[in-house]
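hiii, so i know i said id send this last week but things got crazy w the move. better late than never?? heres the sequnce for the chain we talked about at the cafe, plus the structure i predicted for it. fair warning i was half asleep when i ran it
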Amino acid sequence: MQVLEERAVLADLDFICSNLTRISILYLLMRSKHTNYCMSLKEISYRLGKHPRIVIYHLEKLKEYGLVEVVKNSRNGKRRRIWGLNLNRTDLIREVFLYATRNFFTQARIERACSVNRKVR
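okay and structure toks below
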């Protein structure tokens, strides 16, 4: 699928930002600097307390807008294992996140959604 232009992303901000799961995924990836802004599908699903199929659906939507990308596939290439922020579009990602926190969710609400199954390590 072709990445949509920045204008298209900005036109669809309400669609992108109105879903807590999508914004939570962006937040998790933005907070994962220690892993180069990447996380496994398994870790994202666990932290959000969501089934991997639900997470994949929202990751694919974010990918359509060019906000995230597949970093690593499994050996057979069919399963998308590691996802990361599209580091070529960091300004756009920041703008999308700020729009979401101004119009839809508080940062505290997003943090709670991202720590459903978080354990102290």
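btw The longest strand covers residues 68-73. thought thatd interest u
miss u guys!!
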